[in-house]
Amino acid sequence: MDDWTTVYLTESPYLAEAALQMLSDNGIEAVIMNKKDSAYPMIGHIEVMVNKGDQAEAEKLIKEFSS
Question: What is the CATH number of domain 4-66?
Fold first, then answer.
C-alpha cells in the first residue's frame, strides 16, 4: 500500500462507499480501508484511498462530493 494515499476519512460506511463509487465513476481506482474496531464500532474510521498519482484529481472530486 506504499503507492496509495488517503483522500477521504469518514465514520460512515455508506459515505465511504458513495465516495468510492464517485471516484470510480470518474476513472479513479480507489479502495476502502476499514479501520473501525470490530468489537467497538464507534472507535476508528474508514479511509478511502487512491494511487498517489491520482491524488490531486481525487482530492478535487472529494471536495466537490463533500460540499
Answer: 3.30.70.1530
